[in-house]
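Deviations from the work plan: none for this task. Representative record:
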Amino acid sequence: MDLNEIKIKLKSKSVGIAGCGGLGSNCAVALARVGVGQLIVVDFDIIEQSNLNRQYYFFSQIGRKKCFALKENIEKINSNVDVIAFDKRIDRKSVIELFKNCDIIVEAFDIAEMKQMLIETVLSEMPGKPIVSGLGIAGFGENNIIRTEKIGNLYICGDRQKEISDDLPPLAPRVGIVANMQANQVLEILLSDSK
Amino acid sequence: MKIIINNREEIIDYETLSLTELLEVKNFTFKMLVTKVNGKLIKKDERKTTIIRKGDNIAVIHMISGG
């Protein structure tokens, strides 16, 4: 598949991004660069200075809503992408409403409870919908324990063990690796789709 | 009986047990888990009543904070 064929195929695709922090902002930017036609980005949070060590925002955007700042940043990179931003706290009910028309959902939350809620809701209420989750991004180094696993329609990217703590902060390189692995997995699914 | 947990074949000393009991026996003490049995999602409140049988394929996925 050459670059033009890839572009044409991705143009008609829609990807939902649940959470616009380290995983979500970087994954969305990668998908925008390659030309996914529509991105639905959802987050309720605002940008803090401490986020800038890994999240795709700028100093001048501190205090702004992540979802709207991300839309703005993506449009500066690729104005052909239709970015729909929702300033919203996602719950079991809204998952379906927000993402029902997406080809794939990217789980990009930071808190384990939210990850569980989203994965369980998608697997039980949205049969057949692929979900690409990021599990285990904390700290630095140990490239080779980061991996991908497919369990039915659930794809997991990450080291599967390192939880954030005072001694294991989230940092740009590892978060970026996993965010881009998620984007890479999304591409593989979208481009192998015969539709 | 012989079962599969996270793609690994394991033999456990039970004829039958619930998913909750299996998680205890196998020391899955992590608080935040997603569990599947034979490809079907089993939510937390269904684990007690979900009976594991010979040959079942169980996935236990740890929810790791950070993102």
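The interface with chain A takes residues 31-34, 36, 39, 41, 43, 59, 61-67 of chain B (CB under 8 Å).
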